[in-house]
Every structure is written in structure tokens, then in C-alpha cells.
Amino acid sequence: MRRYELIDHTADIGIAAYGDDLEGAFASAAYALFSIIAELDGVGEDVSRDVEVDARDVEGLLVEWLNELIYIFDTENIIFKTFKIDEIGENNLRARCFGERVDLKRHHLKTGVKAATYHMVEVQKNDGVRVQVLLDV
Q1: Cβ proximity of 125 and 25 under 8 Å
Q2: pLDDT of 24-74, one tens digit each?
Q3: Beta 115-126 vs 128-136: how paired, if at all?
Q4: How many whole angstroms separate alpha carbon 66 and alpha carbon 61?
């Protein structure tokens, strides 16, 4: 199963991410986010952060999850590469994220992402899970 794909959009960047379950799809969406922000080859995993988010529904949870990761990237300069979702429900998520601080001598930053948006957000549970979100760049 592919992990993610980019969706064409006139002004922003859309991602569709896949997983066997909700945990896998949300982890794939986070990986896709950071693959847009930076080249992930060579990014280590010596820094970790616990992340907890709440929302009123699973679509909102996806947006809040990605926005929290963008916030940590913006404030702490951490590129995340691996995401372990410990708990996820319709309204809450608890995870541990692994990566390292940005080192411009080693890391190639690509695109600045301002926020995940509610425009075109979807969570589909069929044979596996597909999530979709539009990123404001």
C-alpha cells in the first residue's frame, strides 16, 4: 500500500494518506507533511515529543494533529520523521513523534507550510483508511 500522494490544487498542496487503520493513516499524513517541508533522507530520530490533540470529530482531529506538528516545527525547529500513535479515537489522539532539530548544513528545507485547513478534509474508512487534507503554503 502506498503511504501518501500529493493532490493537485491551484494555490495550496493537498495530501491523501493511507493506512491499514486510523493510526497508520494519521502517521502517513504526518510523514507526508514533513516530506513537503524537508527532504527526510538523513533525518535522525534522536529527539522525541509527545503530542496530544482533541477535536469534535475525526476530520477535525486530522487538522489539529497536523497543525500541532507544524507548530512544534515552527517553534522548536524539529523535523519529525517517525510517528507512533499510541491512542486515537473520534475525538482525541495521543502520539510520540521522533526526529531531530533542523541543521541547515545537513537538512534541505523545501516548502514552508503555514497550516492544515478544513477545506477538502476527508477521512474514509473502507478497506483500510484514506485521509485527505489541504495544506496552506
Answers
A1: no
A2: 999 999 999 999 999 999 999 999 999 999 999 999 999 999 999 999 999
A3: antiparallel
A4: 9
Which residue is it, cell 501518501?
A: 4
Q: Which amino acid is at 32?
A: A
Supply the DSSP symbol for 109: B
| Grid cell locating 109 | 528545507
Phi-psi region of 117 (alpha: psi -120 to 50; beta: other; left: phi over 0): beta
Q: Are strands 13-19 and 47-54 parallel, antiparallel or unpaired?
A: unpaired
* Residue written as grid cell 475525538: 91
Class of domain 4-136: alpha beta
Give the span between the Cα atoms of 31 and 95, in whole angstroms: 13
Per-residue HEC secondary structure of 36-68 comes to HHECCCCCCCCEEEEEEEECCCHHHHHHHHHHH
Q: What is the rounded CA–CA span in Å between residue 115 and residue 70? A: 7
